[in-house]
Amino acid sequence: MQKLKNYIHGEWIEGTGNGIPLYNAVTGEQVAISDTEGLNFEQALDYGRTIGYKNLSSMTFYDRGEMLKKVALYLLERKKKYYELSYKTGATHVDSWVDIEGGFGTFFTYSGLAKRMLPNTPFWVDGDTQKISANGTHLGTHILTPSEGVSVQINAYNFPVWGMLEKLSTSLLAGVPSIVKPSPFGSYLTNAVFQDMIESGILPEGAVQLVCGEPGNILDYVQDGDSVLFTGSATTGRKLKSLPSVAGNAVRFNMEADSLNCSILGLEAKPGTPEFDLFIKEVRNEMTTKAGQKCTAIRRIIVPENLIGDVQHALSKALDQTKIGNPLSRETRMGSLVGKQQYDEVLRKINLLKAETELIYDGQHELVDADYENGAFMSPKLFLNDKPFEKNISHDVEAFGPVSTLMPYKDAEEAAALAKRGKGSLVGSIVSYDDQFVAETSWKMASQHGRIFVLNRDNAKESTGHGSPLPTLMHGGPGRAGGGEEMGGLNGLHFFLQKTAIQGSPDILTAITKVYQQGAEKKYSDKHPFQKYFEEVEVGDSLETAGRTVTDADIVNFSNVSWDHFYAHTDATSLSGTIFDKTVAHGYFILSAAAGLFVSGKKGPVIANYGLENCSFFKPVYAGDTITVYLTAKEKINRGVKGRNIPSGVVKWLVEVVNQREEVVCVATILTLVAKQSPFIDLNVKNVQKILNGLTETTTAKWGKMSPQQMIEHLEHGVLVSLGEPEADKCYTPEEHLEKWQDSLYNHRKMPKDFPAPFLADDEKLLELRHKNLEAAKQAFLENLKRFVIYYKENPQAEHMNFVFGKLNKEMWELMHRKHFTHHFEQFGLI
Known about the structure:
Layout: E1 6-8, E2 11-13, E3 20-23, E4 30-34, H1 41-57, H2 61-76, H3 79-86, H4 93-117, E5 124-131, E6 139-146, E7 151-154, H5 162-174, E8 178-181, H6 187-199, E9 208-210, E10 227-232, H7 234-241, H8 244-247, E11 252-257, E12 261-265, H9 274-288, E13 298-304, H10 308-320, H11 340-354, E14 358-362, E15 381-384, H12 393-396, E16 403-409, H13 412-420, E17 428-431, H14 435-445, E18 452-455, E19 474-475, E20 486-487, E21 497-504, H15 506-513, E22 523-524, E23 541-544, E24 548-549, H16 552-562, H17 567-570, H18 587-598, E25 606-617, E26 626-637, E27 648-658, E28 664-675, H19 685-692, H20 708-722, H21 735-744, H22 763-767, H23 774-794, E29 800-802, E30 806-808, H24 810-827
Parallel strand pairs: 7-8, 7-10, 8-9, 10-11, 12-13, 12-17, 13-16, 15-16, 17-18, 22-23
Antiparallel strand pairs: 1-2, 3-4, 5-6, 6-21, 14-15, 19-20, 23-26, 24-26, 25-28, 26-27, 27-28, 29-30
Helix pairs in contact: 2-4, 2-5, 3-4, 3-6, 4-5, 9-10, 13-14, 19-23, 20-23, 20-24
């Protein structure tokens, strides 16, 4: 029988004990053995703190985001085998999709957040700069850096993939190495995904380790700077949190515990309304998805007292129609519990519930291609608590399976009170079309809930459901739910980061934060900042503009153009009692006039205005005042670009507008998209000719079979095809892949050296030469390149077929030729 290996201090290691046998939850057959006996946990933690921390923390946030994306893509290509293992845990295809591809989706989400919102530095400036001195020579701000330690992540059995990736998405992005400790049950699935993460070679050494089995005494070795993330029962979580090694050291502890989540049906949501039907469907789904083994599942069904019978009838009917059985069957809608041990535990909790409440639905389902004896199957159970303010068992005991309790309420006050009797929940939902009821109930129950999900006919089609935590929203809850906070977008990273206040002069803070601070030294040069590519722009690059004197005509004209006829700009007789002495220039005119002063009219790397932040007007500007602008590169933000967009980054520019007395009248931050330098040669004929001067008959290729003349004639043929001489007869790329191939023309990735051009599959065709020698071939190529430039100036709308990329327009042909020329010039060592 396969024994699952552990991955610690860079090696795959088998435990030395007998281990824990792991069984197929559907058939009862043994699948694997998990064993951690004999592992050196102290060494594993030390390895993470040293090698792992050094490698991860030295990466930038942007690069870690790119790393998450690469890992997710690598795993996505191998998803089929994960599904095959997931079925053995009792999960249906839908259950498995949530666990497996939902986990990958978390990596994708955090990668996107990093590339849009996080800096290309190993630290993260948090919040605005504070002026803490009268003259601005002493400033303060905060930076976030990876907490110097290792994160031990203890996960539950219900989501073997998502549970791991959800935690890793934030810890890896924050730059903190992790040791993953899944529940033994289902750990064979976690192990398979983890193996592929390591085999991908994408993660740096020491970034992640895996302990597949019992945790042993691993938490005895945590120390200052380490962190523990726990998902499981509140009782176990509290025990771990109180361990001397955790409580006695500066160990961060995050707990996400099971909770008695509720769903409330609105007072107006009677049978026949869309909300009643949505409620029944949602409760049914939450009772049966993952066989109720979800920390967010609905355990308490809170219903208007006059609708108890209607809900009981409708829900019982819906549960009757739910097919239970082998997850591999297409009929099956609910699988099994994860194992017999969990079955026995759920049964024990059911018997506790029976002591105070009535079992009103006990499904008698015939299994699909399975049997109760071998598998860990349990039919849905529905209880009724007729006096939920007196009988507390429903608010205290959670059966972690397809089990829920129905209970009545009279009004919004009672509904909220019952919701809060769970003493802290991950999620509570309200299904209602009554805005007032929803508003009153939600804010009253919010203090005891980590998330409130409201469902009605308006959002039903796009709703993600009561039980689905989302990467962009917090997952956690107060009280019984553990008081933890996971994900929540970028907030989820804060658990792993150390926040440090930085104080110093403007120059010092600029040097530390890589963000320009007002008052720091400006760098002036002859080259206009807007003529610099993203890589060339440096924080502090500045421009001082000429002055512009504002006139009465400017104010009148701007009023007419903008339709802004506010009295302060147009009516000098209405200014008594105001802060203005005479009609004043519009604030947005000042900003527009500033832009007119600092922009460069010549075409350059700046692509577009991307936004405006923190615009403030400090002093009025009147006709006769002269304004001057200081433009300074404040911050650079690397940016992931998809599709047919020019690779670029965002530059934030500090705009300081002063009057003739050097008084600051306006300060704003503008954002521009700035193109990155292309690694490909441009199509300037003189430059290409200069490059070709280095090509001779004896020049040898670094790869491929082409001779120098064959390469030049190959490029010339490509230019002629782009002129329609001849028109390519077909595109060899399948239609479903064509858009992806065309998009690739816009990125800065070079053509692969081993790319087999489909239309040159015949080597004989490649050898056919049209020109008498290399010099003649060069001349013909350059002449046709000149023709290409002129042709698309005269015919800017022309399109012609390419063998690989399909029909291309002027822009796309230019991009293709630039990549193609660079590829072959590098092939012969010319550039």
